[in-house]
């Protein structure tokens, strides 16, 4: 499906003329989306179009209701200028964050505000027709509840773990049975443009647009949840690699004599440090009589998963803290390889384990200090995401707007 704003569907004339007008409109919308309300003179400086033409184009966009007159701005000498901004209610973006055991849905207006958000727990990801149909049903129920006309939805942005070919809208790990590919299936089912990418790369886009990576050019974003994902901002841009598979950090070799990984290889980092490993190790220890708050959780029927383990860590449970520390030793070793190769200015830890805060940052920092060259390691800032569970949802918004505002 074509990526078009509503007003672009109304443009008529010779193809070359329509394309040129569309590009001019998008330059203006691009400036206002990324910079906020601006005067005609401020827009002219960025878009490199004459002032009379910009004024005419802005009038057109106001007529289409894409832009609003935002009132009078501050004077910089002379008459106070009119300011213009994007109409936040002109269209909306649906964010779909698919995880192994949960589903997060959100709707954003064009000011990046979440007007709706919901989390569906215990929604286990499976490569089945049933899952796909229930996924569409959940999105349809949300749309119906919001009472927003379907044509007002600009796109559906999707975040999904595993190997994802964003360019062709294909997932090769999860939901690969979708007829024609996942993007084609969702577009056909919903009648809305869809865009897909790997969860770690989507998280990186979210951090770059709305989080701690704003104004940073070289940042590594780790998604520490059930597995380990990596999104890389290099030279200010998201790095996808040749086929869009860059960032499989969890599958670098750490222990040649180690365990079999779910990717089919031996001794991957994910077999030593991941949310799944942490949960498995904790459960085995509890079965063997390990004293821990988590054993009490289990007795009262509370599920032992990443959420409850992080709760125990935050409550000061020494066993849970020790288990995380052991994992972080291996994580730090793996990160040192990336730091030596890429020399990032920042490493952001996101995902469910980011909720552990200092309990994950401190041991990883110790491991990096132990194994990294001091000159390189000491200049890399390590911190947890502020966006936390919203990072992928915010990233879906960033991914959609980046594509729609290209020209």
Structure description:
It is a single chain. Helices cover 41% and strands 18% of the residues. The protein is an alpha/beta fold and 407 residues long. It folds into 3 domains: 6-86, Winged helix-like DNA-binding domain superfamily/Winged helix DNA-binding domain (Arc Repressor Mutant, subunit A), CATH 1.10.10; 92-204 and 392-404, ATPase, nucleotide binding domain (Nucleotidyltransferase, domain 5); 213-386, ATPase, nucleotide binding domain (Nucleotidyltransferase, domain 5). The longest helix has 25 residues, at 318-342. The protein is globular and about 75 Å long.
Order of strands in the sheet with most strands = 5-4-3-6-9
Number of domains: 3
The CATH superfamily of the largest domain turns out to be ATPase, nucleotide binding domain
Query: Judging by the overall fold, what is the CATH architecture of the largest domain?
Result: 2-Layer Sandwich
Mean pLDDT: 93
Keywords:
407 residues; alpha/beta; Arc Repressor Mutant, subunit A; Nucleotidyltransferase, domain 5; 5-stranded mixed beta sheet; globular
